[in-house]
Amino acid sequence: MSILWFLLIISISIFVHELGHYLAARVQGVGVKNFGVGFGPTLLKFERWGTTWRLNAIPLGGYAEIEGMMPGDTHGYARLSSWGKFLILVAGVVMNLLLAWGVLAALASIQGIPQTRAEVTEVLPDSLAEQAGFRVGDRILSLNGEKLTAYDQVTRFRQSTGEKVFVVLRDGAEVTLRFNWDDTQTRLGIVYRPELVGYTRINFFQGFARAIGETVVAVPRFVQEFAGSIARILSGQQAQGVAGPVGIVNITGQAAEQGLGTLVGLLAAINLSLAVFNLLPIPGLDGGRILVLVANVISGGRIKPETEARLSYGGFIFLILLIVLVTINDIRNLVGG
Q: Which chain regions cross the lipid bilayer (predicted)?
């Protein structure tokens, strides 16, 4: 069942992404010969609006075959202004973002925003946390008089030096814990996990704005973690900050066990990740194509279509290799090796 949910979520995400490219091309009068979700043998196809729509056997990608994007073409995409080309290239990312923000906004208005607190699961020996009096089972309620509404807000104590005051729930009673944080320390010394305590509902538009704000904050962290994980994988090390098809199937199975709301949230998360990943300046991805487009504008068109095609081919080979390495990493993570 996990695989079926995975296929559905990935197929929706890919379809929405490629639909963005398709719509941006058609609105500018550029034809699209083929629109496909997946690669390999075609399972289902039909023709509509001058396009052959295909559902293929391997749902790990997709394509919108836009007219005029081949080297030497002078029609379709090739005749557009730089802004017109940019619109087509960025439209897939925009559609993934809109879907993710819309899903998160709907969840916030229907189910509500999950309110979590941190439950301490381990206190490291001889640590600052042990000296301050933290115990396993403590539920962290507030920091310096401010109520914590999400478990990962615990790390706010790192933002400045000085005395830190935590209030925790222990055996039904509130306990105040104090310690001093300065530049000589590297960690507090607790391990904690999220504990769901309820939901707070907001309207759709508030949820949409909140989703945009969280995305802006999360993108730099995502890029940094992704780059670090890829660097570790390429050096032969094991990494936890990135997941390929095998890892996503496992994550999907865990989400399915928690209910439909978690699965829908996973759909949003995958679309956000897909949007950011596609904007990376890697040849073959939308971000790589946009980079070449900008470079061509700056250089006065010195990058030939043939050169761009070779760059895209090299980027495609790199991405295939990356998928293989990430899949190996997924398997190592699953077996604990």
A: 86-107, 260-280, 311-331
Q: For position 174, what pLDDT does the model report?
A: 95
Distance CA 314, CA 307 (A): 11
**Which listed residue (18, 65, 119, 308) is catalytic?**
18
Q: Using CA atoms, how far apart are residues 252 and 256, in angstroms rounded to an integer?
A: 6
Q: Where are the domains of the chain?
A: 2-108+264-335, 114-200
Mean pLDDT score of the chain: 88
* 18 classed as catalytic: yes
Contacts of 141 (CB under 8 A, 6+ apart): 117, 147, 148, 167, 168, 169, 174
What one-letter code names the amino acid at 30? V
* Residue 107: its H or E element: helix 82-110
What six digits make up the tokens of 225? 């973690």
List, for residues 16-43, the tens digit of each pLDDT value: 999 999 999 999 999 999 999 988 899 9
Q: What are phi and psi of 125, to 5 degrees?
A: -60, 145
Buried b (16+ CB within 10 A) or exposed e, 241-270: ebbbbbbbbbbbeebbeeeeebbbbbbbbb
CATH number listed for the domain at residues 114-200: 2.30.42.10
